[in-house]
Design a protein that fits this description.
With 353 residues, the protein is mainly alpha-helical. The chain folds into 3 domains: 1-119, no CATH class; 122-215, no CATH class; 226-319, no CATH class. Helices cover 50% and strands 5% of the residues. The protein has helices at residues 10-21, 63-69, 71-80, 84-88, 102-112, 125-138, 145-153, 165-177, 181-194, 218-240, 243-247, 252-267, 273-276, 281-289, 306-319, 326-331, 334-337; strands at 32-35, 42-46, 57-61, 95-96. Helix 6 (125-138) packs parallel to helix 8, helix 9 crosses helix 10 and helix 14 runs antiparallel to helix 15 (306-319). It is elongated and about 90 Å long. This is BTB domain-containing protein. Residues 40-121 form the BTB domain.
């Protein structure tokens, strides 16, 4: 059935909204109505079903706009869902969306209905995480693509988050769900370089008791593998720092210098490898730069100081690290083989594939 034939005349919508506002003293509070389209032909009811969202709200929207943006909504209005019967029967009873986060649905509808003045430039990560879940559910990630890039990669945007691993994981989660490759690469690089502990990739969403598994679990292993690869390069850089000394033979001053080298590393928790792995790669570089040189003794001037040799090698290693490629993660590397990745692999060497 053509969706236009299922549309409800605006006057019927107004009558229905008016009837919803007529309550007696024993009735629950009248839900607030948010008008996305003054000529809308469908009403949705969000909120009021969980302790986190006790307030109900009505959304007056356009079925045509929602159908163009989302094949799931289009199917709903063509009897693909039980809720669709409400629209086609023209009774204009609100269509309940009890399982969807109200803030995310309202944000999504504002974007889809071109209510740009009402769309926040910097929504919090929790709302964006719920939006990613809603967009995945209704298959409308593409419809919010422009705003997703603004939120995640704009000047001072959410994608620039640093700090707690939970915050960075949330950026990774959102950028995966909203399909923003550059933000995903940046967040994965922060997890690889700036953090050392394990993490849950599909966290419990803020303001709810649910965990939405958008990200494949193997991604955590991919990030850990990329991180371990970087640690191995640090091990090599540390070994490179004493190669000139080893080449000089077994002189007493050389042996003393090698001993001082490893003692210094140990004092800064850069040696042995097990100690190094208890800190982040970025922190290891910071510690190397803070090294206080031991006495050089009778060492030839041609031998670089420990701090210079090690710092240079570590900085080169850390500076060469790259985030992961979202397209490769989603396609198992097929996008790289076909040359279809949206970021070049020179920008994303640690792609985990």
């Amino acid at each position: 059935m053509d969706i236009s034939s299922a549309s409800t005349p605006p006057v019927m919508v107004e009558n229905k909204l008016s009837s919803l506002s007529l309550t007696d003293d024993n009735s629950p509070p009248t839900p607030e109505t948010i008008t996305l389209d003054s000529s809308g032909d469908v009403i949705f009811l969000v909120g009021g079903k969980t302790p986190h969202h006790q307030k109900s709200q009505l959304l007056l929207a356009s079925s045509k706009i929602l159908s163009l943006a989302s094949p799931v909504f289009a199917a709903m209005f063509r009897h693909g869902f039980q809720e669709g019967k409400t629209l086609s029967s023209r009774s204009m009873d609100p269509i309940p969306l009890p399982d969807d986060n109200p803030d995310a649905i309202i944000l999504l509808f504002k974007v889809l209905h071109f209510r740009s003045r009402d769309v926040p430039w910097d929504p919090d990560l929790g709302t964006l995480a719920h939006l990613a879940v809603v967009c995945d559910k209704y298959d409308c990630v593409e419809a919010v693509a422009a705003w997703s890039r603004v939120w995640l990669m704009g000047n001072g945007g959410t994608g620039s988050v640093r700090g707690k691993v939970e915050d960075v994981v949330m950026v990774l989660y959102v950028s995966y769900g909203l399909d923003v490759p550059s933000a995903f690469s940046e967040a994965s690089l922060v997890l690889i370089k700036d953090h050392s502990r394990s993490f849950e990739l599909n966290p419990e969403l803020p303001g709810s008791d649910i965990t939405a598994e958008l990200i494949p679990e193997h991604l955590a292993e991919d990030i850990q593998r990329a991180r371990e690869g970087l640690y191995s390069k640090l091990d090599e850089a540390i070994a490179t720092g004493i190669e000139p000394l080893i080449e000089m033979g077994g002189l007493w001053c050389v042996r003393t210098r090698i001993g001082s080298y490893f003692t210094t590393l140990s004092n800064h928790n850069l040696w042995p490898p097990s100690a190094l792995r208890k800190t982040s790669v970025q922190e290891a570089l910071k510690r190397a730069r803070a090294i206080i040189e031991p006495e050089r003794g009778a060492m030839p001037s041609s031998v670089q100081p420990i701090k210079a040799a090690l710092g240079e090698a570590l900085a080169k290693t850390v500076g060469g690290a790259r985030g992961m490629c979202l397209d490769c993660v989603k396609t198992g590397g097929e996008s790289a083989r076909e040359g279809k990745c949206r970021i070049t692999h020179e920008e994303s060497k640690e792609k985990g594939t």
